[in-house]
Write a structure and sequence with these properties.
With 458 residues, the chain is α+β, with helices and mostly antiparallel strands. It has 17 helices and ten strands. A hairpin with a 6-residue loop joins strand 2 and strand 3.
């Protein structure tokens, strides 16, 4: 996993900060179904912050070759055999999973002048699982550590983690790979640096007095971490097969289709349940288009947040947004003497969630009158429009239940909720509640969204 940070400073010194990885690449590749992460086994090299000074002849950006050279030596050949026998299914699944992302990655890498071969790097990083998270915290299809991602233009806070967005993380990875090639002028060394960090690779070159990745491996002394020694040949083997998978007996599909979407710029936070209600879609459909969102709402402080919605619905959401977005977030007004910890305990949330949701450090001192966002999805959404369904006299068909003058709300079912308890809370009846939601019984589940017509928000 890349566990380094690259930032070109004015003095042309690059700091590479290494974070211990939980993944070491060995011949025994293990895939944990359903875990969202592919592990390629297990010890982590240790490293500290190392100052990296590029050689004078590496300060320019060398011409990038169109292909990554694949030497079919014993190390690479052994991994090719592995991927075409015991781990064939793993590689097939990874290639098929990645087919929907390849056109996007290829387009971005072409813009950046990177070899098309590098689009297959996620095969060994994440198996193209967008939600992959390693034990060390490397995240997304490119398995970027948090600080690495930040230095390469990605945001991560309580509300979003852009490493989870395949397109945004690809742009960050392209920037990182381009920087590494500008330093080393060789893709094998650059790939080693993507895994171990630029500083570690430069130190290895200096200590070994060798300028080739393969020459550093051909010595009795180990100059690079074992993980990195295996990482490069592992990728080259996967690449060799990915260039022509059919020739290696793999059963793969064609390029997948990316979902079409519209983009709507928001100037205020928007609850995803409200967006789904306005568009007549589901929260899951919106989440799939915006995988970077970590919560039930778009970011609070992001000016001009770009929300993706299903194609054809952009104008609908824009029209609703123009009318105004209700303030659905719940707040706690700080009283004299309250602290983050005391407020968190009162609200039954963690202090870290309370602090991060409000963009505060854990040591922040609160002032009486401060309004803190409660880091929990509200049970109901604020009223927007008044319902105007036809009314009927008591005893008539309940499908036309009288809701004139009432506001449409959405209740999120929580543990302990029942149809009767929810009906009492909103001063309505169980029959009406079932009718509004098309329920034929009183069975509800935690997390379910119920439509309610009520005179006020309780």
């Amino acid at each position: 996993m890349p566990r380094h940070v690259l930032a070109v400073l004015p003095c042309l010194v690059i700091l590479s900060a290494f974070t211990a990885s939980a993944q070491t690449l060995q011949p025994q590749v293990t895939d944990q179904p359903g875990s969202g992460i592919t592990e390629v086994v297990a010890t982590a090299p240790t490293a500290d912050i190392v100052a990296v000074v590029p050689d004078d002849d590496l300060l320019g950006t060398p011409a990038t070759p169109l292909l990554v050279d694949i030497p079919l030596n014993d190390r690479v050949s052994n991994y090719i055999e592995l991927f075409t026998t015991t781990r064939k299914r793993f590689l097939e699944d990874a290639i098929n999973r990645g087919s929907r992302y390849l056109p996007m990655i290829q387009a971005i890498f072409k813009e950046e002048g990177l070899p098309d071969d590098l689009v297959y790097l996620p095969l060994i990083e994440s198996a193209f699982r967008p939600a992959a998270v390693s034990r060390a915290g490397a995240t997304g299809i490119w398995q970027l550590m948090r600080t690495t991602a930040s230095f390469n233009g990605l945001s991560r806070d309580w509300y979003v983690d852009e490493r989870l967005d395949p397109e945004k993380s690809t742009r960050a990875a392209a920037k990182l790979l381009k920087t590494l090639y500008g330093m080393f002028g060789d893709w094998h060394l650059s790939l080693a640096a993507y895994n171990a960090g630029a500083g570690r690779v430069q130190q290895a070159m200096k200590r070994s007095k060798r300028e080739s990745f393969w020459d550093m491996l051909g010595t009795r002394r180990r100059y690079l971490p074992k993980e990195t020694q295996e990482y490069v040949p592992l990728f080259l083997a996967a690449l060799q097969i990915a260039r022509d998978p059919v020739a290696y007996g793999l059963n793969v599909s064609g390029l997948g289709e990316q979902p079409l979407y519209d983009v709507v710029t928001l100037t205020q936070p928007l609850d995803l349940r409200r967006a789904a209600d306005w568009l007549g879609t589901t929260v899951d459909a919106i989440r799939q288009l915006n995988p970077e969102l970590r919560r039930w709402t778009t970011p609070v402080r992001t000016a001009g947040y770009a929300l993706k919605v299903p194609a054809g619905f952009g104008s609908t959401l824009e029209a609703r947004v123009t009318e105004g977005i209700p303030a659905d977030l719940d707040h706690h007004v700080v009283k004299k003497g309250e602290t983050l910890l005391s407020v968190a305990r009162k609200l039954q949330v963690t202090r870290s969630d309370l602090a991060e949701a409000n963009y505060l450090p854990l040591t922040a001192k609160l002032q009486a009158g401060d309004a803190l966002i409660i880091p929990r999805a509200p049970d109901t959404l604020r009223p927007t429009v008044t319902a105007t369904l036809a009314s009927n006299k008591p005893g008539e068909n309940p499908s036309s239940w009288d809701v004139r003058g009432l506001s449409k709300l959405v209740h999120l079912v929580r543990p302990g909720d029942t149809i009767d308890s929810i009906a009492r809370a909103y001063r309505t009846t169980s029959t009406a509640l079932r009718e509004w939601n098309g329920l034929v019984a009183n069975t509800i589940v935690v997390g379910q969204e119920l439509t309610i017509f009520a005179s006020s928000v309780e």
